[in-house]
Design goal:
Catalyzes the NADPH-dependent reduction of beta-ketoacyl-ACP substrates to beta-hydroxyacyl-ACP products, the first reductive step in the elongation cycle of fatty acid biosynthesis. With 234 residues, the chain is α/β, with parallel strands linked by helices. It contains 8 helices and 7 strands, in the order βαββαβαβααβαααβ.
Length: 234
């Protein structure tokens, strides 16, 4: 049965791969985006997840087009990397507001419809950095770690209504963000990854699609690392 799926930040990178994975199996897929174009075959809604008004409007448009959201993937995120002593309050707060509070806003809004349906899947995209930490990324790591506690609390609150809430924690992935790294930096990163390669965006998307499937109906409050072994022990 075709479901209404919403992927935030879904017009490039990991978000786009996730959106395409759901579309390929016949789901009705909507994405939110802040800039750029809407990929062909997807329903796009411009939305800044730091704005409660934007989130409400976006959900209204998606519901009018596809019906109540049955699968939410909270993927929208930003980075503002710098060392702690150079990090401004604005740098810290902006990353938390997009990555963590933004996920709260969309999950809260999606859960209203899911509770009425008595079913639903919420998947939050975190990062290995949220589990292991990373120098120069205190704001990003804090935002991604916060998703774990948030997801587990949501899982306990609404699990009895047939709604699961899980976290996917990717490691280094082949995207436009990693393409700009120098060869030396890429080699340095790969030394830390037991599988000795980056993930493809499709590998992240496959795990997300699994968590939204019937096969994963008894998985909730879980953190699934897709990091080639980089975060083992954390």
């Amino acid at each position: 049965m075709s479901r209404s799926v919403l992927v935030t930040g879904g017009n490039r990178g990991i978000g786009l791969a996730i959106a395409k994975a759901f579309a390929a199996q016949g789901d009705k897929v909507a994405i939110t985006y802040r800039s750029g174009e809407v990929p062909e075959g997807l329903f796009g809604v411009k939305c800044d997840v730091t704005s409660a008004e934007d989130v409400e409007r976006a959900f209204g448009e998606v519901e009018a087009q596809h019906g109540p959201v049955e699968v939410l993937v909270a993927n929208a995120g930003i980075t503002r990397d710098t060392l702690l002593l150079r990090m401004s309050d604005e740098d810290f707060e902006a990353v938390l507001d997009t990555n963590l509070v933004g996920s709260f806003r969309v999950a809260k809004r999606a859960s209203k419809g899911m509770l009425r349906l008595k079913r639903g899947r919420i998947v939050l995209i975190s990062s290995v950095v949220g589990l292991s930490g990373s120098a120069g990324q205190a704001n990003y790591a804090a935002s991604k770690a916060g998703l774990v506690g948030f997801a587990r609390s949501v899982a306990r609150e609404i699990g009895s209504r047939g709604i699961t809430c899980n976290v996917v924690a990717p490691g280094f992935v082949e995207t436009d963000m990693t393409a700009v790294l120098t060869d030396d930096r890429k080699a340095e990163i790969l030394k830390q990854v037991p599988l000795n390669r980056y993930a493809s965006t499709e590998e992240i998307a496959g795990v997300v699609r699994f968590l939204a499937s019937d096969d994963a109906a008894y998985i909730t409050g879980a953190v699934i690392p897709v990091d080639g072994g980089l975060g083992m022990g954390h």
